[in-house]
């Protein structure tokens, strides 16, 4: 039987505020245990939550970027469960009236664009951390993370393959960083993904029973976990079994998912509006102010790059993968007036080198002005593509400008016809055999001759010119 | 609506309240009385009325995102039953 995969993702986006959602306690990562846990996070009697304005504003930012509805009245609710890293006995979250509803996120799968619908995004607090290593047979609790502001972003079950799920997660990841609302650091848990996965026979309308894979903190694990889960569900169904609704965990060591709790053990969270917090009301003016402060969004920038610089839609999508890359490209394209060349170098050599060195574009050793210098020398034919590579290498490892490197290493391409003709004649005289073969119809022999000329010029002759002159002389 | 003994036991478990078998009947009666009252309220026609999240018609005041709290770990942990390396210790929990 042919099966169709249905995936929806819930992403916990940690907002990059200075303080917690309900207290003025610092959220800085990596502090000594419990040094950033105030009476509010510890749930001391009598404390009350005091809402952080930045959380509301960052949520609105995301909502506007996704084209969502901003609920101008939204309500906090208590989600009740008992766990030692949640001292209050409930998590403050949003249930019936979240701050953000609806919206779409465009994703790029291969070279194809697809729109994924959003269900909602709501504000909530994070819990603390339980450390199960042995503390004299007990569990250690660190409440530094408790009260850290999160946006839980819930998608519709719109994805049909692990690749689409990863593309969606990547697009959301780059958007929240683009908007400056999340640092995107997945190792530190700033962006955590839960995946709801089900399968159904092709053509069937109703969804199959889903299982939820919790807490995936890398795109690679997300893909592996979903792939494993899909295969497990298909195998189970084809063996005549049933998939029961459950929550599962992914084990990166074995590459398998395993059951955490079944539907019978599912929590009954008994949500109700939190009487400690009044409804959040958002004025039109506040939304408009935030809208006016928004950076140009990736989709708009992508369209502009295609329009203004003549780059392909695919290249533009890569260039707008992060705001830093987009800004870098734009600076080079503007200054050099060579959009396509700029796109080729940024998506090609620059991306490959950064990837090799595990660096981000913000740490690129070649600043935009220096790449511009290189591109200008390619555009005006001073450099052949081979020489350009050589200059690029030198740019990467030095602080010099492209012109200084060309000067220092004598890398100017020779386009002087007289000089090239002389070298061509020498090559022809030195290789009668190649000449004979070429005249006998062996086209390849020309390359041998051209190679000799390039060698004689130390790679500096303009290759197109060399070919032309050779053909002329041998005609 | 009438709660069964099973319902009462489940609610007690969720709320982590220890209710003995002897108490269940009495607690069940009390809860049923409360539900009776709620049923009366639910009989009122509320069509077109927006649900109220808070009895006062005021909005949440928002605080600026500025750090105001300092590290008080020592004071807080002075009243904790057990601590180690800055962590609060609790009976082992593995879900």
TrEMBL record, chain A:
<dbReference type="InterPro" id="IPR014746">
    <property type="entry name" value="Gln_synth/guanido_kin_cat_dom"/>
</dbReference>
<dbReference type="InterPro" id="IPR003789">
    <property type="entry name" value="Asn/Gln_tRNA_amidoTrase-B-like"/>
</dbReference>
<protein>
    <recommendedName>
        <fullName>Aspartyl/glutamyl-tRNA(Asn/Gln) amidotransferase subunit B</fullName>
        <ecNumber>6.3.5.-</ecNumber>
    </recommendedName>
</protein>
<dbReference type="GO" id="GO:0006412">
    <property type="term" value="P:translation"/>
</dbReference>
<dbReference type="GO" id="GO:0005524">
    <property type="term" value="F:ATP binding"/>
</dbReference>
<dbReference type="GO" id="GO:0050567">
    <property type="term" value="F:glutaminyl-tRNA synthase (glutamine-hydrolyzing) activity"/>
</dbReference>
<dbReference type="InterPro" id="IPR006075">
    <property type="entry name" value="Asn/Gln-tRNA_Trfase_suB/E_cat"/>
</dbReference>
<dbReference type="InterPro" id="IPR023168">
    <property type="entry name" value="GatB_Yqey_C_2"/>
</dbReference>
<comment type="similarity">
    <text>Belongs to the GatB/GatE family. GatB subfamily.</text>
</comment>
<keyword id="KW-0067">ATP-binding</keyword>
<dbReference type="InterPro" id="IPR042114">
    <property type="entry name" value="GatB_C_1"/>
</dbReference>
<comment type="function">
    <text>Allows the formation of correctly charged Asn-tRNA(Asn) or Gln-tRNA(Gln) through the transamidation of misacylated Asp-tRNA(Asn) or Glu-tRNA(Gln) in organisms which lack either or both of asparaginyl-tRNA or glutaminyl-tRNA synthetases. The reaction takes place in the presence of glutamine and ATP through an activated phospho-Asp-tRNA(Asn) or phospho-Glu-tRNA(Gln).</text>
</comment>
<keyword id="KW-0547">Nucleotide-binding</keyword>
<dbReference type="Pfam" id="PF02637">
    <property type="entry name" value="GatB_Yqey"/>
</dbReference>
<dbReference type="GO" id="GO:0070681">
    <property type="term" value="P:glutaminyl-tRNAGln biosynthesis via transamidation"/>
</dbReference>
<feature type="domain" description="Asn/Gln amidotransferase">
    <location>
        <begin position="327"/>
        <end position="474"/>
    </location>
</feature>
<comment type="subunit">
    <text>Heterotrimer of A, B and C subunits.</text>
</comment>
<dbReference type="InterPro" id="IPR017959">
    <property type="entry name" value="Asn/Gln-tRNA_amidoTrfase_suB/E"/>
</dbReference>
<dbReference type="Pfam" id="PF02934">
    <property type="entry name" value="GatB_N"/>
</dbReference>
<keyword id="KW-0436">Ligase</keyword>
<dbReference type="InterPro" id="IPR018027">
    <property type="entry name" value="Asn/Gln_amidotransferase"/>
</dbReference>
<keyword id="KW-0648">Protein biosynthesis</keyword>
From TrEMBL, chain B:
<dbReference type="InterPro" id="IPR003837">
    <property type="entry name" value="GatC"/>
</dbReference>
<dbReference type="GO" id="GO:0050567">
    <property type="term" value="F:glutaminyl-tRNA synthase (glutamine-hydrolyzing) activity"/>
</dbReference>
<comment type="function">
    <text>Allows the formation of correctly charged Asn-tRNA(Asn) or Gln-tRNA(Gln) through the transamidation of misacylated Asp-tRNA(Asn) or Glu-tRNA(Gln) in organisms which lack either or both of asparaginyl-tRNA or glutaminyl-tRNA synthetases. The reaction takes place in the presence of glutamine and ATP through an activated phospho-Asp-tRNA(Asn) or phospho-Glu-tRNA(Gln).</text>
</comment>
<keyword id="KW-0808">Transferase</keyword>
<dbReference type="GO" id="GO:0006412">
    <property type="term" value="P:translation"/>
</dbReference>
<dbReference type="Pfam" id="PF02686">
    <property type="entry name" value="GatC"/>
</dbReference>
<protein>
    <recommendedName>
        <fullName>Aspartyl/glutamyl-tRNA(Asn/Gln) amidotransferase subunit C</fullName>
        <ecNumber>6.3.5.-</ecNumber>
    </recommendedName>
</protein>
<dbReference type="InterPro" id="IPR036113">
    <property type="entry name" value="Asp/Glu-ADT_sf_sub_c"/>
</dbReference>
<dbReference type="GO" id="GO:0006450">
    <property type="term" value="P:regulation of translational fidelity"/>
</dbReference>
<dbReference type="GO" id="GO:0050566">
    <property type="term" value="F:asparaginyl-tRNA synthase (glutamine-hydrolyzing) activity"/>
</dbReference>
<comment type="similarity">
    <text>Belongs to the GatC family.</text>
</comment>
<keyword id="KW-0436">Ligase</keyword>
<keyword id="KW-0547">Nucleotide-binding</keyword>
<dbReference type="GO" id="GO:0070681">
    <property type="term" value="P:glutaminyl-tRNAGln biosynthesis via transamidation"/>
</dbReference>
<comment type="subunit">
    <text>Heterotrimer of A, B and C subunits.</text>
</comment>
<keyword id="KW-0648">Protein biosynthesis</keyword>
<dbReference type="GO" id="GO:0005524">
    <property type="term" value="F:ATP binding"/>
</dbReference>
<dbReference type="GO" id="GO:0016740">
    <property type="term" value="F:transferase activity"/>
</dbReference>
<keyword id="KW-0067">ATP-binding</keyword>
